[in-house]
Amino acid sequence: MGSAPPSDDSGTRPRPPSVVGRGAPVTAEPSPSLQLHSWRRLDWRFLLPALGDGPVVLAGRPDEELRAALPLLGLPVHRVTSDQDWEAVGGTASLVVLIDPTPKDLGSATGACRPGASVYAEVRRSLCRLQGPWTLMGWRRAFAAAGLEEVSAHWHARTIDRSARIIPVEARGAMRHALAQHQGSWLRRILAATARAAVGVGLLPALIPEGSVVGRYPEVAEGAGKNLVERVLAENVDRLGLSAVGLGAALETAFLTPRFVTSRHVVVLVYAKGESRPRLVVKVPRQPDDSRGVRREADMMRRLAALLGPDRLRVPAVLGTVACDGLSLLVESAIRGAVLTPPQAHRHFRTVLAAGTSFIGALPVVRPAGENADWYGPAVERPLARLAEIAPLAGETAALCARTHELLAPLRSVPLPAVFEHGDLAFPNLYFGGRDTRLGVIDWERSTTSGVPGHDLVFFLQFVSESRWSASTWPAQVAAFRDAFVGPDAWAVPVLREHLRHRGVDPTSWGRLVVMTWARTSATLADRLVLDEDRDDLCPSAAVEAAVRLERETRLWRLAVELAERGELGDRAGSA
């Protein structure tokens, strides 16, 4: 990926004007509040070894989202629509992007490339096209016939528009691993099993309806990997100690591209060639200059290892961080087993509950209560104040914060121990199964050494309850919350009370701690939705406010406050 240009005085990376031939100009650029969403449209760039310094040529039938996102790369962009446009960019491009191209577009693209340039195409199967190729694999053959080298085809599962994974079609092990994650309805399990069988006999690539093809113009630097992550790993084999995890030069990668609104990273699974179990995980920031999350996770994981010693918990080990082209990549060991899905949590309720409470109970106390008397300000007060500043919602956020502080007032002067807190113990961060019966936990970028007792457990219990209710809608999530925490038969309350006793905290305070959990979780949205966390002059935006208003965490916070105010949440004698 090309070197990042310097920032101007405003802290915003300058964008060069889009350069065009005789085609339509590419000038659209998303507002800062929408940039994280727009960067997701560019996740495919990690399939390339590097972007180069431009220009980028865009051809075919590009969607408006891509046209708006490309200027974020900080490179000149040519939008070509005619033969004259192609002639104007001949031999200059470091990257050509083709969307639903024609065979003629591919021929023109190779003419636009300079030595070492990449061509990326998004293609969809069509039997109506008068001229081929008609399939993803047909386009891969066409790339090779056009003289491009190191051609690779990728499945964007399930579709290009909504892809959650990008997997090379020749990486059969990665394909089998992805299909093994399907734990939903019986129909989905049958389809996944059928697809795995197709992988085994080499038929799945022919069945893939849409995906991407990447090729490079000849004269590529010797030893370059097929994509950014493979190149970085190849250059840091000894430094990262890859041989210790069973990796050598022959490896394969698959890309996870989460779609949820606060997702800031692409996750790359790294396999030994032919294997279906990943050996490594590499986290890559979607946005340049947004490496705080991976650096924080690396620091937290090292602290946790120092506090606990090796093998006390089933968590990744940090192999290192690598700076590359303006990004910091985090390299960790992979956890065995499968992601704990909501259907699995439902089917294995008691086993999962026991594994989760055991994991949370084993997280270390960082400071005893006697040394943590002033915990409320940094843990609750300041994060809520920042949320009210970033997403005021016409005063609604400040009012909700005030109601929260009033409910929590009896706890403010009570010293509580500072615990190591994960902050996001739910799908897809939990692993279950395999030879190790313990719960595995990944994604520690929201963790803190100044956590509040009960926070992780409340978060986890809500996930388990929603899994039991198959709660994909807000009314079902409310029902799951009530089932777990409200009324004399609330199944999660005894679990939470026992955990608080274990931490030396008054168990009758559980109701307030439920309120606090969702208030603190909602407060993290301020930094998860805003790129520059250090600026004090950030202005509210409609996009950020809309995201905060609609987020499940914020709605659970409002619900908990309302129930506590009505006396329905907590022990009447001691809590709310």
TrEMBL record:
Record's keyword annotation contains Transferase: yes
Top-level lineage group: Bacteria
Residue ranges constituting the Aminoglycoside phosphotransferase domain according to the UniProt record: 270-488
Protein name: Aminoglycoside phosphotransferase
Region annotation (Disordered) ranges: 1-31
Protein keywords: Transferase
Acetylation listed as a keyword: no
Species for this entry: Geodermatophilus obscurus (strain ATCC 25078 / DSM 43160 / JCM 3152 / CCUG 61914 / KCC A-0152 / KCTC 9177 / NBRC 13315 / NRRL B-3577 / G-20)
MF (Gene Ontology): transferase activity
